[in-house]
Amino acid sequence: MTSSIAAMHVAKKQLGLDDDTYRAKLTNITGKASAKNMTEEERQKVLTVFRNEGFKPAENAPRSDGRAKLSGRYAAKLQALWIAGYNLGLVENRDDAALVAFVKRQTGIDHVRFLRFPDDARKAVEALKGWIARAGGVEWSDAAIVSDYARVDGFKIAWAQWRKLGGNPHANSVGAFHAEVKALTGVPVDRCGKEGWITVMNAFGQRIRAAKTKGGK
Q1: Ranges of H-type helices in the chain
Q2: What pLDDT was estimated at residue 160?
Q3: How far apart are CA 115 and CA 117, in angstroms?
């Protein structure tokens, strides 16, 4: 069972949905009554709706290999950036162990320090952000940004992904990007929240990795 299917089953329990109501919701969101028949994009879309309705995934759920995820004050930020690298096609291994190894190579700082101490955490975060900007084309600066929605990290990463997928700043491409965000999340770009951007980034990430595999790069 994939992690997204397992999460959907947990959400069903948390939200107190009986079988008929659960399947009706799945059908309403994706047109499919079974999680097994959905694409990963569709499952993520369902999970976004469930989160908006109150589903709270376990923050430190065990991984498939039985080991706990990284924990600590700065773990979530670092993991989010690492997954952004994965969804931009920069990271081959999304595991926490790979994140720890990368940060140590870049900064010389052991994970016990960068997960606990602010100065070390800032160095780790900046190392990751700098690499993602250089290799992934993410523009972190807000200097040229007019719209509030474009100031959030989720938008910045998704826009860089869109460009990797062949998009550009021209009006037709920007319009197509906005339409794709709405198709994936059910809301316009200016109303897309954190969970919505996660859905978009995961969906675009799948496409980037598929294109990379197809191109043999």
Answers
A1: 3-14, 19-30, 40-52, 75-87, 96-107, 111-114, 118-136, 153-164, 171-185, 194-215
A2: 97
A3: 6
For residue 51, count other CB atoms closer than 10 A to its CB. 19
Q: How far is CA 87 from CA 16, 59, 113, 118, 217, in A?
A: 32, 20, 26, 26, 15
pLDDT at 22: 93
Tell me which residue has tokens 């316009």: 188
Taking 50 as the pLDDT cut, the residues of the chain under it are 59-68
pLDDT digits 0-9 by tens, 62-92: 444 434 467 778 888 999 999 999 999 999 8
What is the DSSP secondary structure assignment for residue 39, as one 8-state letter? -
Structure tokens at 99: 């994140």
Residue 74's CB: how many other CB atoms inside 10 A? Answer: 18
What are the phi and psi torsion angles at 180 (to 5°)? -70, -40
Q: How far apart are CA 95 and CA 170, in angstroms?
A: 36
Show Cβ contacts of residue 96 under 8 Å, excluding neighbours closer than 6 positions: 63, 69, 70, 79, 82
Q: Which residue, among 142, 143, 162, 161, has the nearest Cα to 152 in the 3D structure?
A: 142
Q: The whole model's pTM is what? A: 0.70
Alpha carbon distance 185, 199 (integer Å) = 7
* Interatomic CA distance for residues 187 and 162, integer angstroms: 18
